[in-house]
Design brief:
Oligomer: heterodimer
Number of strands of chain B: 0
Helix content of chain A: over 70%
Distance between the termini of chain B: 18 Å
Radius of gyration of chain B: 17 Å
Strand content of chain B: under 5%
Strand content of chain A: under 5%
Shape of chain A: globular
Number of domains of chain B: 2
Number of helices of chain B: 6
Number of helices of chain A: 6
Structural class of chain A: mainly alpha
Largest sheet of chain B: none
């Protein structure tokens, strides 16, 4: 192996580690955000959805703060032509409002309302080690496989 | 109204937005949890899994870090000092809810983060429609389960 090959290999190894670290940082900040905001408490989420009961507006502040920050952040990010660590911006290109999108969202909402957990807070709350949550995570993963099979069948 | 809870919500929301901005700036990815973790588990994409595993570990370690710091920065309703709240339903309800959340976010290509945060910030019509839909069915579900059936949670 000559020296230029060696240095390019260590370069790509280094890049992989930087990318992995960037992913960890994103997850950590996201998890901190969910915890600081109280979204790791399903009672707050159900409290927000319970407009006919003792309404808890917290989720509105969370979603508002997140959307506005991301809106501004994305504007700055998209001034560049590519991500800082290489590759391309991977954005969804689909446009149509089909039954799969709307039906899927409808089912998700029912599960969200029943439990007060969407996938982020459910996963971030693993450290609470509660049996009902672990049960939910198991069927959530099962549901992802079911959806994948269903989508593959429809395409075939 | 509980202004401290609202302020913490706002601060946490800004953190979530910073995370989404960071992930797009560095790796060019949407910070959608069901997409990141769901595709990791169901497809194990070759050469595209390491950052997903790292994100997943980061997501779990965020609340643990707050707990290690004493829990004072948590925002669990009625329990100052706690970071992770207790589930509102028993195992039966949670099994059903998990299946619905998994199938629904799988078919609908996203959840509260991918559609609700990143999609709305991109002003994407599909995400606006999905967010409107899951908010609607969640509101109706809570109304039916809490007020018509008297199920779930402390009243």
């Amino acid at each position: 192996m000559n020296s230029s090959m060696k240095s390019s290999m260590s370069e790509s190894n280094k890049n992989r580690w930087v990318k992995t670290a960037a992913g960890y940082a994103a997850g950590l900040i996201f998890g901190l955000g969910l915890a600081v905001s109280g979204m790791t408490d399903p009672a707050r989420v159900v409290g927000f959805l319970d407009v006919a009961g003792a309404w808890d507006p917290t989720l509105m502040f969370v979603l508002g703060g997140a959307v506005v920050t991301t809106f501004i952040g994305y504007r700055l990010v998209f001034k560049r032509s590519a991500p800082l660590l290489g590759g391309v911006f991977q954005l969804p290109t689909k446009r149509e409002l089909d039954a799969k999108l709307l039906g899927g969202a409808a089912l998700f909402g029912i599960g969200w309302g029943l439990s007060g957990y969407c996938p982020g807070p459910a996963i971030a709350s693993i450290g609470g080690l509660s049996l009902p949550l672990l049960a939910m995570l198991a069927t959530m993963v099962l549901g992802w496989f079911v959806a994948k099979r269903f989508a593959a069948k429809r395409l075939a | 109204m509980d202004w401290t809870a609202g302020l913490q919500g706002l601060v946490g929301g800004v953190l979530i937005g910073l995370s989404a901005t960071w992930l797009m700036a560095t790796l060019g990815r949407i910070a959608g949890i069901s997409g990141i973790v769901g595709n990791l588990i169901t497809q194990r994409p070759k050469g595209d899994s390491a950052w997903r595993v790292a994100f997943l570990l980061g997501l779990i370690s965020g609340p643990l870090l707050l707990m290690a710091l004493g829990g004072g920065l948590g925002n669990v309703a009625g329990s100052p000092g706690e970071v992770i709240g207790a589930p509102v339903g028993g195992i039966g309800i949670m099994l059903v809810a998990g299946l619905l959340v998994g199938v629904g976010t799988g078919l609908g290509s996203g959840c509260t983060s991918g559609h609700g945060v990143c999609g709305l910030a991109r002003l994407a019509p599909r995400s606006m429609a999905a967010t409107g839909m899951f908010l609607l069915t969640a509101l109706v579900t809570v109304y039916i389960s809490r007020h018509l059936l008297g199920l779930g949670g402390v009243q």
